[in-house]
Amino acid sequence: MSKEILDPQNWVDLYADMMYRFSLVRVKDPEAADELVQATFFAALKSQHTFAGKSSEKTWLFGILKHKIMDYFRSSKKHISIDPTSSEETDRIQFDSSGHMNPKPTNWNMDPEKAAENSELAKVLASCLEGLPDKFHKLFVMKEIEGMSSEKICNEFDIKPTNLWVILHRARNQLKQCMESNWLNTK
Amino acid sequence: MFDGMMKILKMTCKDIYPLISESQDHPLPFCDRTRLKMHLAICGLCEIYNKQLDIICKMAQSLGKEDAKVREDTSMKPEVKEKIKKWIAEKN
Asked: pTM of the prediction?
């Protein structure tokens, strides 16, 4: 296999948008996403000599970006807990007197394994994600998008397992409801 | 034994639905797992909810991929790109 080489002159044209979108889905804030991409290129330029050519240029750059994103999450670390006075953090799912969900969940009629292929629904999920309260967004991203274990999230971000679990549960419910009202009801 | 069975069968959706989300995060203890399984087998609404969360989870994973196709129209501002290009050319 031929050895990969770096071509910094073309980095922006080839990868900037891809890296920007990758960051934006994780950090929500466009300015922060800009800075992450810039910081990645900056670090990459400085450490070009460490590139062994075993992976592709793209994989190498994304590896640096992933580190930068984790640093960003760590730097905004503060104690995370549920705020009982905040209406946006309450559980949105309601139940009737017999204990059934009200309104009833709608059947989305799709195979979960194939859901990712539905680009229209993916767009709705992306904008629903942006609408989550910050701490919900951050923990959901770490758990579902980064695939971190609950244990690691609790240790790194100083959060109690019960709080993590309640936040993830409410985040999922908000996403579910947002998707139902923005996509499925318009069908 | 009978009381235990009745307790399982009498679980309402309200009692069960937090377990659905929890089961996505870690394997549930045997007792909760059994309760959830039995409830899902008889309750169509919770089964739908279970599937919805599964869809959200799978889609979120794909949104986070490097070459995710979603929002391909979203791009970095041209002026930011130009700025980066300029200093790469200078420093390289």
From this structure: 0.88
